[in-house]
Amino acid sequence: MQDIADPGFLERAWMWLSALVLLSWKEHTREFLYAIAGGVWAVMRLAGKTVESGHVGVKFSFGRVARMCDPGFYPLVPVLQVIRIVPSRARTLDLPRQTLATDDGLVFEIDANVVYRVTDASKALVEVRDYETALGQVLSLSVHEVLATRNRSSLRVSARLDAALRQAMQERAAAWGIAIERAGFTSIRPLQQTTRITQLRSRLHTRARVLETLASNDLAAHLALGLVGPSSRLVARTRALRAVERRSRESAELRNLTHRLDSWLGSKDKSLLSTERSAFLRNARELLLARR
User: Fold this and answer.
1) Of 144, 169, 190, which marks where a domain is finished?
2) pLDDT (tens digit, 9 = 90+) per residue, 273-292?
3) DSSP string of the chain?
4) CATH (domain of 171)
5) Domain end position, chosen among 166, 190, 214
6) How many domains does the chain have?
7) pLDDT (tens digit per residue) in 256-266
8) Range of the domain at 144
9) Which pTM value belongs to this model?
């Protein structure tokens, strides 16, 4: 067996290894370049962190808050130190559309938003897991707290409601190092059913006042009701004629179907005629009603 300490053997091994590396480099030059660039980028990411303008960083050493980092580059000990970055400029958070029932039982759709700024980055990162998600939940709770005890007459977009919402949010977000610069309602809209109920109430009150006014003038009650409004709705003559024509056409079609059924089942057993005829007429009637 040849001794590996032989200078000739080591020289030949080095030549073989150099030839193998050179051949691999020629065949996979692009892959090697990508690997080298990725390694350099990974080392730079582990060895330092850049905090951009409009942001602030919090440096953690061994899992503890070490210092606040203003915009700039900061060297780090890989794995043992890390910098977490949060925006320091004002940001806007929109609340998903909420459905709210007021104190008098009416339902409204609410849109609101909040403008906030992180004033203490260490509290925002340590005191709460995800401050943006928590802020959205606080906004939803504050909206319900401000509006749930109010009635329909006070539900209007106003500076008073915006101030109440901002105050309710600031009390909850202060513990997370977040300042609420502005909070407000963008829209407060009643649902279609709520609008119909409120309009019906207004119409009833209006008619009641008209009736009281007419009755105080010594007019008969039935005359007063006649002036307030009829109990039935007038329909145009053309529309009424179209309805009569449609009903006549449907009756003719139904009679035609009945005649066809009788002729089709004329040769069958009479005991089956009544059952099949009833089923056929029922299906035909449903088809005609569905065409209306």
Assistant:
1) 190
2) 566 666 666 666 666 555 55
3) ---TT-HHHHHHHHHHHHHHHHHHHHHSHHHHHHHHHHHHHHHHHHHEEEEPTTEEEEEEETTEEEEEE-SEEEE--TTTEEEEEEE-S-EEEEPPPEEEE-TTS-EEEEEEEEEEEES-HHHHHHTSS-HHHHHHHHHHHHHHHHHTT--GGG-S--HHHHHHHHHHHHHHHGGGTEEEEEEEEEEEEE-HHHHHHHHHHHHHHHHHHHHHHHHHTT--HHHHHHHH--SS----HHHHHHHHHHHHHHHHHHHHHHHHHHHHTTTS-HHHHHHHHHHHHHHHHHHHHHT-
4) 3.30.479.30
5) 190
6) 2
7) 777 766 666 66
8) 91-190
9) 0.56
